Amino acid sequence: MDKQKVIFKDLGIIEYKAAWDYQETLLNNNVQIKSAIRNAASSHDSELTTTNYFLFCEHPAVYTLGKSGKKENVLMNDDELAANDIAFFNTNRGGDITFHGPQQIVGYPILDLEKYYTDIGKYLRNLEEMVILTLAEYGIKGGRSKGETGVWIDEDIPGRERKICAIGVRCSRWITMHGFALNVNTDLGFFDHIIPCGIQNKQVTSMQKELGYTVDYSQVKEKIKRNFEKVFESEITG
């Protein structure tokens, strides 16, 4: 079976809303192509196909709330958010509240899961696996916490559980958007003002905190790309 081709784009530092709008554009283009493919099915038009993308970016400080989230999990009011120059958005992804900011790798796969598998649960587990493999290359043992999407450390030791990567996605006509946020050298102080992912009494960590040194940010991005190719049996281009 041929590997799926995935176009990679590093958007650099970009405002959350601009990245969200770009994702929506890519998703909607793919949805329109799917509709055209169905309409052209009788003529056996084989030229039409959706395009897979894998986007990387870094956001200025922002709290984002998922569809199932509660605004009470943000422990700052609007005036405090503005005073601290932190943006806030209600989003259409799954999950609750999370933080995005400098030195955090945010990845947005825009994939046509009909070219892979039509199973959202498997997709989420594969995103986790990609991050777990990347962390392992640094000697960090990432794992999964039952019923809680994302990548954790010491997830089975009460009182020591700490989340290093948040995951929340949206899927329309089997086209994905949103994705994951891996704390590399992230300022964890921002998490003090929210109840991360709506989960009480659990910590948040970063690669820097776990390792005790500032991690080469660009190197981590390259490792994630390679592990994406491995887990998703895809070939990154661009």
Characterization of this structure:
The structure is a single chain. The mean pLDDT is about 90. Strand 7 (about 145) and strand 8 form a beta hairpin. By secondary structure, this protein is α/β, with parallel strands linked by helices. The protein is globular and about 55 Å long. The chain is about 30% helix and about 30% strand. It has five helices and twelve strands. It has one domain: Bira Bifunctional Protein, Domain 2 (BirA Bifunctional Protein, domain 2, 2-Layer Sandwich), CATH 3.30.930.10. The strands form two sheets. Strands 1, 2, 6, 7, 8, 9, 10, 11 and 12 form a nine-stranded mixed β-sheet that branches. Strands 4-3-5 form a three-stranded mixed β-sheet, with no helix packed on it.
Which features would summarize this protein structure in a list?
single chain, 238 residues, BirA Bifunctional Protein, domain 2, three-stranded mixed sheet, globular
